[in-house]
Amino acid sequence: MLSKEEISRYSRHLLLPEIGTEGQEKLKKAKVLVIGAGGLGCPVLLYLTAVGVGEIGIVDFDTVDESNLQRQILFAVEDVGKPKANVAADKLFKQNPFVKFTIHNLQLNNQNALDIIKNFDIIIDGTDNFATRYLINDACVLLNKPLVYGAIYRFEGQVSVFNFGNKNGINPPNYRCVFPEPPAPEFSPNCSEIGVLGVLPGIIGTLQANEAIKLITGIGEPLSGKLLVINALTMHFTTIDVHYDKGSYKNIPACTEEFLKMDYAYFCGSPNQSDDIKSITAGELISLLDKKENLQILDVRELGELPEVTSLSDLQIPLSEIDAQVHKISKEKKVIVFCRGGTRSKQAITLLQKKSEFKNLYNLEGGVLKYLKEFQNK
Fold first, then answer.
1. The dihedral sign for the CA sequence 254, 260, 262, 264
2. Strand partners, 226
3. Domain membership of residue 319 as a residue range
4. In what helix (H) or strand (E) does residue 224 lie, and over which residues does it extend?
5. Residue 147 backbone dihedrals phi, psi, to 5 degrees
6. pLDDT in tens, 59-102
7. Strand-by-strand arrangement of the 295-299 sheet
8. What phi and psi values does residue 303 have, to the nearest 5 degrees?
């Protein structure tokens, strides 16, 4: 039952015959898990809170960074350095005290995903990496939970609903039906490496919230069996039919035991690299440069990518071209490999060590951004 205060708060919903009191009570009883409180998660959380979803779970292990403020609309300057999940829950509760918030301030993995996801009716993926997307998809298939998917890349976004059967009883597609294999790591950078239009996560996240509302209330036609692709530069909307693929299930763990053993990082081409990759801190590199050590500095960012750093402008080979230009990389000198934040440089080192047996590569921890901060404080 809705209280007097809730009837007043949700009056515009109650006026809609498609929702009405019955639909609003369904929203109140619903339990939705939002994985990722970043660019996509912020608008999802804001709107699901506003419409009165009864319980909202928030999964995020990250803290607020200044670079998040361009698009992650729940956060402000005073939140920098604080846990995203906690900050989000505090602000959302002030927006709607009728909603219960469950915080999971952790990184989703094989060991905790099933225990967390099983407690919710609908799962919303607001993550930014393929390993976690496949993990979430497989957990939802195992637990038979509908998954609202969203993704962004520079100026383009995608939305779909997976693992949700329609009224005709046809087997629903899952994420692997559309993306059976992940792209190579060098072709799957995240927002921190290639950028994203600030409003795009808001557009995609709002559409994800809309799909969740439709699933809860039973109105409209969910994007099950369809992938909506949006180009924010042209405002071109394309809907692609997605079909159930029985073969996709061969890669999904068949039981909890298999799920717990699955290495999603390895499946997505990002094996645990900590033991295989040597690293160097920004301070150590500055010291070596001051001593004029005989180094080779390898920049694996895209050509023209900012910031430009004169002291590190030795050799530039974009990650996607490493194979073709490997002959330019020294095997005698100590080679310092860097990118914007340290992810692509690790991928480059893994590739070079595996294919060309390099033993003299060092990853610059924190990338060029960490280097510039250290250099300014020198």
1. positive
2. 241
3. 278-376
4. none
5. -125, 125
6. 999 999 998 999 999 999 999 999 999 999 999 999 999 999 99
7. 278-280, 361-364, 334-338, 295-299, 315-316
8. -60, 130
Boundary-marking domain end, from 248, 267, 286:
267
What are the tens digits of pLDDT across the range 150-202? 999 999 999 999 999 765 667 899 999 999 988 766 556 666 666 789 999 99
Q: From the CB of residue 304, how many other CB atoms can be counted at a distance below 10 Å?
A: 7
Of the residues 240, 267, 294, the one at which a domain ends: 267
**pTM higher than the cut 0.85:** no
DSSP assignment of 111-144: TTHHHHHTT-SEEEE---SHHHHHHHHHHHHHHT
CB half-sphere exposure, 264, CA atoms < 13 A: 21
H-type alpha helices, the chain? 4-9, 11-14, 20-29, 41-51, 84-95, 113-117, 130-143, 175-178, 191-194, 200-217, 256-261, 264-267, 282-290, 343-355, 367-376
Q: Do residues 201 and 282 both lie within one domain?
A: no
Matching residue, tokens 């046809």: 170
How far apart (Å, rounded) are the C-alpha atoms in residues 81 and 311?
29
Whether residue 82 is found in the same domain as residue 105? yes
CA gap 338, 332 in Å, rounded:
18
CB count within 10 Å of CB 87 equals 20
Residues 6+ apart with CB under 8 A from 360: 330, 331, 332, 333, 334, 335
Name residue 253's amino acid. Answer: P
Contact between residue 220 and residue 214 where contact means Cβ atoms under 8 Å apart: yes
Q: How far apart are CA 56 and CA 74, in angstroms?
A: 15
Catalytic residues: 191, 339
C-beta pairs of 301-310 under 8 Å, 24+ apart in sequence? 301/339, 301/340, 301/344, 301/368, 302/194, 305/340, 307/368, 307/369, 307/372, 309/368, 309/371, 309/372
- 33 with 158, same domain? yes
Q: With a cut of 90, say whether residue 355 has pLDDT above it.
A: no
The token pair that represents 54 in the structure block: 């009864």
Helix (H, G, I), strand (E, B) or coil at 372: helix
Q: What is the pLDDT of residue 149?
A: 98
3 state SS for 247-286: HHHHHCCCCHHHHHHCCHHHHCCCCCCCCCCEEECHHHHH
- Domains held by the chain: number: 2
